[in-house]
Design a protein that fits this description.
By secondary structure, this protein is α/β, with parallel strands linked by helices. The protein folds into two domains: about 210 residues, Rossmann fold (3-Layer(aba) Sandwich); about 160 residues, Glycogen Phosphorylase B (Rossmann fold, 3-Layer(aba) Sandwich), CATH 3.40.50. It contains 17 helices and 13 strands.
């Protein structure tokens, strides 16, 4: 049987991080899979950082990023470019990840050319098409176009079943971000950024990220004002905020937070220094989706600066807490974790339900079955609770 041609498509840093272990796993088995990579470069600089880290050289780079680009422009340029790639390569499967515009457009292009679609990190839902925006609908629309759904958790599987996806097309893998994390975090990592290199990590570090489109404006002003008050109430902590390059985020962050001693507004970090910084932080405040999966694997409590999350498993497990964007609520929740050791340990020691670092191998195993190389798929990922969580922590947590 000839190798199956798999075209993996991604365009942003989060996609690249989570797809890199899958690409590496497929490329190890050239007798079964001919894996090609196409990037839209929806985010250029941040994407390139991850490609270098994981030594991935795309066969196709559409380089669509433009200053101030709109969602419509991203969609049009990505669709036109990906259709040309599909016409040239004629893959057996297009593999996409998550919830970006690139993800949805790649699935749409594959549908137009009647090529099967595999969706990694399928089935996450908030139920609100505008939160997160546009990611919720990108993910739902990709799901409607997909033939194989790689759900990270049993909850994600349940969401897909409720939407009418046949059970035999859903396979629970755990999340590939844990695969990437375990390959990247090191106890002996040295920071080259001068601010990070000079930080005293015997102090408690609060790591912050904030960039979500739905938080622009008033909600983000509340978030940044909360950070200012947290620092005023707890002068002993250090706040590190890699600030997104979008002017709507950056201008407001500098207006409210610049110049405050102990609040470090730094440039966005490459993935490797970022996750190693997270591993040495005390607490994470974020409106990101992926950090809700990554930080708990390192034993770091997460306060989520959003009103809803498509990752309810983490809330249920106790590894993250939804606090929204109210200044008063953010300050109170942070104060509790800084002053109440019992509350902190309850979150820090809760079991991360998102995986064991073997998701990429499971995806390859299912594709072997799907394309006829195996008689049965490998066992799915199962979240077994504290016993499994302790084993994972013993093996991989810092």
């Amino acid at each position: 049987m000839p190798p199956v041609k798999v075209l993996t498509v991604f365009g942003t840093r989060p996609e690249a991080i989570k797809m890199a272990p899958v690409v590496q796993e497929l490329k190890k088995h050239k007798e079964e899979f001919h894996c090609l990579v196409a990037v839209t470069a929806q985010h250029r600089e941040m994407l390139d950082q991850v490609l270098r880290l994981f030594s991935i050289e795309p066969e196709y780079d559409l380089n669509i990023m433009r200053p101030g680009q709109s969602l419509e422009e991203i969609t049009i340029r990505a669709l036109e470019g990906l259709v040309r790639v599909l016409d040239r390569e004629k893959p057996d499967l297009v593999l996409v990840h998550g919830d970006t515009t690139t993800t949805f457009v790649a699935a749409l292009a594959a549908f137009y050319r009647q090529v099967a679609v595999g969706h990694v990190e399928a089935g996450l839902r908030t139920g609100d098409k505008y939160a997160p925006y546009p990611e919720e609908m990108n993910r739902r629309l990709t799901g409607a176009l997909s033939d194989v759904h790689f759900a990270p958790t049993c909850k994600a599987r349940q969401n897909l079943l409720q939407e009418g996806v046949p059970a035999e097309r859903i396979y629970v893998t755990g999340n590939t971000v844990i695969d990437a994390l375990k390959a990247t975090v090191r106890k002996d990592y040295s920071f080259t950024d001068p601010v990070l290199a000079s930080l005293d990590f015997t102090k408690r570090i609060i790591l912050v990220t904030a960039h979500r489109r739905e938080n622009w404006g008033g909600p983000m002003q509340e978030i940044f004002s909360a950070l200012r008050e947290i620092k005023e109430q707890h002068p002993e902590v250090e706040i590190v905020f890699p600030v997104h390059k979008n002017p709507r985020v950056r201008d407001m962050a500098e207006e409210i937070l610049k110049g405050i001693p102990g609040v470090h507004l730094i440039e966005p970090l490459d993935y490797e220094p970022f996750v190693n910084l997270m591993a040495r932080s005390y607490l994470v405040l974020t409106d990101s989706g992926g950090l809700q999966e990554e930080a708990p694997a390192l034993g770091k409590p997460v306060l989520v600066l959003r009103e809803v999350t498509e990752r309810p498993e983490a809330v249920q497990a106790g590894t993250v807490r939804l606090v929204g964007t109210s200044k008063e609520v953010i300050v109170a929740a942070t104060k509790e974790l800084l002053e109440d050791q019992g509350s902190y340990l309850k979150m820090a020691q809760a079991v991360n339900p998102y995986g064991d670092g073997q998701a990429s191998k499971r995806i390859r195993g299912f594709l072997r079955y799907y394309f006829g190389f195996a008689l049965a798929p490998p066992p799915e990922f199962t979240y077994l609770g504290e016993a499994q969580g302790q084993e994972i922590r013993d093996k991989g947590r810092l």
